[in-house]
C-alpha cells in the first residue's frame, strides 16, 4: 500500500533534474562530471518528443523515487476508424531503496488511467523477465497468450 506522502504526477520542464537523477540511479555507470551534459541532453530529448510522450514522476515526501513514460503512437486513418492510437510504456523505474512500497503500482495505475482517458486501443510494453509478474498484476497479458512472451498488451476496455 502506497504511503500517504506519495505523489504521482505528470512531470514538467522544471522536473528535468529529478527525472535525470532517477535515470542516473538506474545504474548506467555515468560519472558525476557527465551529469550537466546529461541533463541538457535529457531536456532536449523530452522537448523533441513533444506532446506524444508523457513522463510521470513519483515523489515520496517531496523526493523523486520513481518514474514512467508513455509514448503515443498514431495509426494512419482508415475507413471506419479515423482515429486509432495506442501507447507504449517505457522507462518504468523505482529506486531500489523504495521498491515494494506500492510506488510502481501507483505509477502504472497513473499510466493506465491516462491511456484509458485518451481512449488508446491498447498499451504495449517490453518488460524484463523479472517485471513480468508486476505487469500481470496490473492487468497486462502476453501478446500471443503464452506465459513466456515478453511483449505484453493490455487491451483498453473502453474501445
What is the structure about, briefly put?
The chain has 159 residues and is an alpha+beta fold.
Describe the structure.
- With 159 residues, the protein is α+β, with helices and mostly antiparallel strands.
- The protein has a single domain, classed as Gcn5-related N-acetyltransferase (GNAT) (Aminopeptidase).
- It is built from four helices and seven strands.
- The chain has helices at residues 16-25, 35-49, 103-117, 132-137; strands spanning 6-10, 53-60, 63-74, 85-94, 122-125, 141-142, 152-155.
- A seven-stranded mixed beta sheet has the order 1-2-3-4-5-7-6, sandwiched between helices.
- Strand 2 and strand 3 (63-74) form a beta hairpin.
- Helix 1 crosses helix 2 (35-49).
- The mean pLDDT is 86.
Key attributes of the depicted protein:
alpha+beta, Aminopeptidase, globular, 159 residues, seven-stranded mixed beta sheet
Topology:
Blueprint: E1 6-10, H1 16-25, H2 35-49, E2 53-60, E3 63-74, E4 85-94, H3 103-117, E5 122-125, H4 132-137, E6 141-142, E7 152-155
Parallel strand pairs: 4-5
Antiparallel strand pairs: 1-2, 2-3, 3-4, 5-7, 6-7
- Record the strand order, biggest sheet: 1-2-3-4-5-7-6
Approximate shape: globular
The count of DSSP E runs of length 2 or more, i.e. the number of strands, is 7
Radius of gyration: 16 Å
Helix content: 25-40%
Kindly report the oligomeric state of this protein.
single chain
Query: Which sheet architecture does the biggest sheet show?
Result: 7 strands, mixed
Total count of helical runs of at least 4 residues: 4
Strand residues, percent: 25-35%
- Average pLDDT reading: 86
Q: N-to-C terminal Cα separation, in Å?
A: 30 Å
Q: Based on the structure given, which CATH architecture is correct?
A: 3-Layer(aba) Sandwich
| Element-level helix/strand string | EHHEEEHEHEE
* Helical/strand content category: alpha+beta
Detail the poorly predicted runs.
none
Number of domains: 1
- CATH third-tier fold name: Aminopeptidase
Question: CATH homologous superfamily name?
Answer: Gcn5-related N-acetyltransferase (GNAT)
CATH top level is: Alpha Beta
